[in-house]
UniProtKB/TrEMBL annotation:
It comes from Salix purpurea. GO terms for cellular component: endoplasmic reticulum membrane. Residues 782-837 are annotated as: Disordered. This is Protein ROOT HAIR DEFECTIVE 3 homolog. Keywords: Coiled coil, Endoplasmic reticulum, GTP-binding, Hydrolase, Membrane, Nucleotide-binding, Transmembrane, Transmembrane helix.
Amino acid sequence: MGYKYYFNCFKEKSDSCSAHLIDGDGTFNDTGLEQLIKEVKLGECGLSYAIVSIMGPQSSGKSTLLNHLFGTNFREMDAFKGRSQTTKGIWMARCAGIEPCTLVMDLEGTDGRERGEDDTAFEKQSALFALAVSDIVLINMWCHDIGREQAANKPLLKTVFQVMMRLFSPRKTTLMFVIRDKTRTPLENLEPVLREDIQKIWDSVPKPEAHKETPLSDFFNVEVVALSSYEEKEEQFKDQVASLRQRFFHSITPGGLAGDRRGVVPASGFSFSAQEIWKVIKENKDLDLPAHKVMVATVRCEEIANEKYGSFVANEKWCQIEEAVESGPVSGFGKKLSAILNISLSEYDAEAIYFDEGVRSAKRQQLEEKLLQLVQPAHQSMLSHIRSGTLEKFKEAFDKALNAGDGFSLAAQTCTQSYMAHFDEWHADAVIEQANWDTSKARDKLRRDIDAHIASVHAAKLSELTSSFEVQFFYDYPFLLLLKLNEALSGPVEALLDGANSGTWAAIKKLLQHETALAVAGFSNAISGFDMDGQSKDKLIASLENYARGVVEAKAREESGRVLIRMKDRFSMLFSHDSESMPRIWTGKEDIRAITKTARSASLKLLSVMVAIRLDDDVDNIETTLSSALMDTKNNAAVKDRSIITFDPLASSSWEKIPSSRTLITPVQCKSLWRQFRTETEYTVTQAISAQEAHKRNNNWLPPPWAIVALVVLGFNEFMTLLRNPLYLGVIFVGFLLIKALWVQLDISGEFRNGALPGLLSLSSKFLPTIMNLLKRLAEEGQNPATADSQRNATKSFQNGSSPLSDSSSSPSSSSASSGVISPQNGTEYSNTLKDD
Ligand SMILES: Nc1nc2c(ncn2[C@@H]2O[C@H](COP(=O)(O)OP(=O)(O)OP(=O)(O)O)[C@@H](O)[C@H]2O)c(=O)[nH]1
């Protein structure tokens, strides 16, 4: 039943399941084989397939056996035509209903009646091919040939054993001897004879050195079966065939009928492998099966890889992604592409799994590299989109943050951090699992772009600020600040220099430091909101400090131009005022020389302070130099003495230890200034001396002692005469009064205060009119009657500067006046008037 079922099953599709693998001329029918493999889906079998072949003498019923055994439809000889060759070359067909997929090859008969002896080469070639590709080789033989010297299969076996040596590393193949037309002799008796025959043949075959001692069993599993005659005992034949068929099921499992399958190639490589083996056999080369296996693996894996690459290129999803990524970012790019790549690689793995591992892995790697190379431009585009997209989004967010009033620095930092993180996130979405590309360059580029944008915005903002409030700050604030600084320094510096003393520059320095520190603090506070780098800030602060110093220096220079005035002021202040700042009255007691020296010293001190800017801690000896050069009287005396030549420390245009930049007044200028100062203050001193002398003169009415002695000696007689005659005394007294009146009237002492000549000139012009006036008034007084209040009038006139003599003729008291008697009251007033004068 089973046999019939499989046979029928085969019959339904027999036409499509066989191929003429190698034709009678030895041409390999690769197309036919491919077609057969495709039809029987051998490519999907991996290693689960078996190849069976049959050899044997021509017309020995091989095809008949195969057709019955495997359900094939190889051409059988028509029994009525007699024995002639029906099978040319090698045919191949699928064994119907046998699992795993088993292919069987029907070889051309070996006793070559048709081809003749010359064609034995084809027998060898086909035998070698069958041994190279088959797991099981059936040797069809007539039962009556067993133990016969001239057995038909003897040359065949010889050939089989010889070619087996040509397989570089032969695999163990199952040789199944199928005894046809078995006789009544039991198989148990036949088999030893057959095995003996086989051994004899094996022993007779010349072997290479390496296999000289190798037993037959190392190369072959020998199996023997016997079948009844198909022609005479068909039913028995069929039953025995059906029984034999069972042995071909799962033949490749361990312990199965198939050999060790060391050299088996994956099913998908069978076609190529068979072609190559035949090619090598045709070229009469030795077959190196391991190398062949690697070669087959290489070719097949490459084919598979190429096929997978091709199918990836044509993959619809990939094409869509590739197209889409050109115009913009693709969501889930990495995942999608990774999945497609995974499919391709998995397919490759599945198809190439049974090939040599080394080859398979190498080809897989190549495929992966090729695929990644293919998708890299798309990934680059994706990265580029992500980078530009992130940059654009950063720009928007940054602008927004700035517009929202966030500080520039804070906004830049926050947005940068945020969008770099976004980039990482978006980039993670684009990562292709299989690729290990370094994307740090893209990240770095984005960072550079962001930084460049921040820098450009910063520059633009600063540029925009020219018309904005902020620039007003940048322009106005420093201006206001400097103005304030100027005010804070100018006035105090002027005041300090005005009262110049040894501590002036220390005080100015302290003031400068204090005001600069205040300004710097204010400026730092004001610019704290701007993203100004430390260097620029330090630069501005340094400028501010320089400006402050510049203000002080400029003020000092300005003040140095007024040094002469200040020296004179100081001189005059000290010279004309006493220690209590009261104006001096030159009474004669003052030491003008000492006062002058003190005043000049103070002026020189002022000069020494004003000659140089001393804002640093350098020490100089300018004051000493000036003092020794200008104040030292001994030195000056020496200079005046032209016979002594001394060194003049002021004969220079620069001060020792003082650079020209800090010099306000050069030594030469000091000398010139001092000379001018002396000249211009000389007059004041002279005036003081004159005033002192005048004061002395005014307060000393007595003649010199010698004059008094001379008067006493020479005028003794006249004095005695006057004492003896009182009339003379009265006349003298009246004369005295008259002269005194003239003295008062003409203000003689006042006139002579400005010198003798001007006094004489003035008196000469006033003398006559005064006399005339006196006389006139005397005349008038004489004519007017005496009044009761004559005494009061006399007093009035006296107070008005009139001579008391004017009343002497008209008032009773005038007699007393004329007689030289002055009332105590009048006398007092007179004396007061003199004092006032
Ligand atoms: N005596 C005998 N004859 C058989 C047997 N089987 C088949 N034959 C006959 O042998 C002849 C040849 O059969 P094939 O199957 O074509 O033989 P073959 O070995 O395939 O022939 P080639 O392909 O030409 O080498 C046919 O006439 C068959 O009927 C058998 O078991 N015993």
